[in-house]
Specification:
By secondary structure, this protein is α+β, with helices and mostly antiparallel strands. The chain has a domain at 55-173. Helices cover 55% and strands 20% of the residues. It has eight helices and four strands. Strand 1 (21-35) and strand 2 (40-54) form a beta hairpin. The chain starts with a helix and ends with a helix. The mean pLDDT is 84.
């Protein structure tokens, strides 16, 4: 791959990261329909599309998503064995809700934390986790996202998480960088 192609790929990735990803799910909602001049109300189930956006996460969101990702472990050798399908079904049972939760965390982003006013904190906010909203979105995504959609969303979440820039930042902060200048005192002692 040439330099120009790499630069174009990087520009496209940066555009994706900055723009975010929008996706839709179809869910059932109930509409209230009035009957007999409004005297009776009937609730009717209707399919409705709901749209969500995944944006580049903050470090806190990246930490919460990564904590869920770390818990997902697949033994590739065991998957190739004769009972691979049984193991695959076991993984579905074990990790389906976790996958829905990862998507929910990515959608919520920084909105997962709700600022609360504390009167004695000199204007500093206290943050509470919005576990109710996280549970609602996790349940929604568990019942509406298909495995093929999950695959596409996971690839998109990984791209938007911008792990490359995060790792580069860690390398810059690391004490044993390869490009770190060596101290004169240390090199003359040895």
């Amino acid at each position: 791959m040439g330099t120009k192609a790499l630069e174009q790929e990087k520009a496209e990735l940066n555009a994706l990261i900055n723009k975010g990803i929008v996706f839709e799910v179809t869910d059932t909602v109930f509409e209230v329909r009035k009957r007999f001049f409004g005297l009776f109300k009937e609730r009717v189930a209707v399919k409705a599309k709901r749209q969500f956006k995944i944006e580049q996460p903050t470090l806190g969101t990246l930490d919460r998503i990564s904590a869920e990702w770390i818990e997902i472990a697949i033994d590739e050798e065991a998957m190739k064995s004769e009972d691979g399908m049984q193991r695959a079904r076991t993984l579905v049972a074990k990790h389906a809700m976790r996958c829905a939760k990862v998507v929910a965390l990515a959608v919520l982003g920084a909105d997962y934390l709700i600022a609360k006013y504390v009167s004695s904190s000199n204007g500093i906010a206290r943050y509470d986790e919005d576990t109710r909203r996280l549970s609602e979105l996790t349940a929604l995504f568990a019942r509406t996202i298909t495995p093929s959609q999950l695959y596409q969303l996971c690839m998109a979440i990984t791209a938007v998480c911008n792990l490359g820039d995060f790792l580069s930042s860690i390398r810059l902060m690391s004490a044993d960088r390869s490009a770190m200048p060596s101290r004169i005192e240390e090199s003359s002692e040895g």
